[in-house]
Amino acid sequence: MSLLPVKILGLLASLTLAAQGPAAPDRWKLDAAERRVSWDVAADQRLPHSDRIEMAGRRVAGIVSYGADAERNLLLERTCVWPTLRVAPNDTHASLMVRFRRDQAPLWLNGRNQALPVSGVTRFEPRVHVEGPVPPRERLVRAAHQNGILRLETDLNGGLSLVREIFPSGEGTALLERWTLCNPGKEPRVAGVESLHVVTSLPFSFVDKGLQMAGQPAPAPITREGSYRISIDCEGIPDRPIRPGESVSVGLAFRAQRADEPVLPVAFDREREARIALVQGLRDALRLECPDPVLESLFDYSKLRACESIVETKHGPLHAPGGGSYYAAIWANDTIEYVAPFYPFTGYAYGNAASLNAISHFARYMNPGFQPIPSSIVAEGTDFWNGAGDRGDQAMFAFGVSRFLLALGDRAEAKTHWPLVKWSLEYCERKKTKDGVIASDADELEHRFSSGTVNLNTNMLTYGGLRSAADLAHELGEEDLAATYRKRSEALREAMERYFGAEVRGFHTYRYHDGLDELRAWICIPLTMGIDTRKQGTIEALFSPRLWTPDGLLTAEGSTTFWDRSTLYALRGIFYANEPDRALPAFRALSRRRLLGDHVPYVVEAYPEGNGRHLSAESALYVRVVTEGLFGITPRGFRSFELKPSLPASWDHMALRNVRAFGSAFDLEVRRAAKDRLSVRVMQKGRAILDQTLPAGESLQVKLP
User: What is the CATH number of domain 285-643?
Assistant: First the structure.
């Protein structure tokens, strides 16, 4: 069966988020014990349906589109991105990107969907042979996500089944598939998989600008030229009898590399084992225990998506938002504000290294004139993008870097990267207006929606940055500066209340910028910073029909656009504001929709923009709803944090196991001691280092040995 035309497949995928209403039943089912979600296609009455998932290794990312038509015929195509194989122009979107279809030549997407040259080949996926007069026809029976692997099970009209396991190479440049032919019947069947070797090449020529330093002459650009080898390889399985209950396997690789590099064999089983080991390692660290298996499972999935998408570039590891667009490049929001403060809690060394590397890259642009640092550094660190001007990026640096360095708990690294925090806060101080608030050209939505000259997001991030930087200054022995930052934060808090506090649409909340009389999603951010002056009105506004939808918050009332990032900030803030019974139903509904609905198994970036891409940093924000919202963890020192648990009334316990932050490993246990009192224990190596009861909504300080 030919794959549906890409426009049709794309249309099906684009409808998944928009069409699912509040009453739509789950399409996927959860096996909580195995952390597996599966779609029973054979029993699904709502066909056709298709979906897509992004998965990544250090040198390749794959966006796999899959599904079934009305007759359950398999739909499948793979889009591969190679972040370190650059094409011209060498900008944000210059990672080599090729789409592989089953019966059409590979398409070079950077080249305006240009078909790559191949000769004598009409099929670009191995053909399965099954004895009998009728060629086998694949019908999708079941799809599953488990251990970072997409599993597609089809039945063949010859009486056999074929299982595809799709996953990226961890270190190499191949998107891999492991095919297994199975005989579930009672009689032997003769079958096999044809071998396939397709090779094409693509000449490249791009400009490498080299690493630039603010205030220094730019290095001489170098033109890099050569060609890339792009291949599809499968050794095949010769036709042979397959006995009842027997299975045979073979590997399929979609790969690209420089043509002058040696072509090495792919160890499919070893790659599969490494992928599973990565997932299980992340599952064991920062483990959530609560009465809701959907939350526990999406928490695990989110850790994988946030950690897997890091590119090993020639200038060090860089977190990659992904989505078919954003690789070998870093942003002040995704990389520094969203994902960096998350990595220390997992103990994932490669994630921490990527954050430290990103901070170093941004610090190269610090300058004595306090001109804004670029919003994004691209092309493996050799160029930058600053098309939206100052989006509040310096506030993002101050907030994200301070939180990350405190949670990392490494004094030497903190001293190394402390200058960027101080520079960023001085920049913000110089942007202060006569009203005592901080001006910026835009916010992180880059003029998609109005943000005025002074917006709430930039100011709240500055406030949070000042508070965390004061804690960092204290740890580094700069007490005078710590006092200065605390004084500035209090002054800014008072100025923000005067400037942004307002009655909007009848709600006692905030205007997002001067002159705006509509509700915005980002009015949630004061709650995440512990500001509860307008808590009730803000929560009512967020959950009102003007903003709340089955997909979370609209960016602005009256629009049709949503971004999961603001919804996740809002849920985190409502939990942190000690309103768990308001937050939990919405958190559960959104989690179920993202894990078991029509577009799974991760939270997304936005819709309609990007069509609900599985960007990586949003998954980190999902985890932070739990760590910073439900548990209320706020870093206060290299070995200390504030804990403000928010236990829903329907729960009697929750725990975080094997938390790896603050240079340590520990467990957090929260139980209900009485109606309005919580029992909190911090465990290390099986021993309680803190065992305390406190009133619900109160916080306590935890100091680790």
Answer: 1.50.10.10
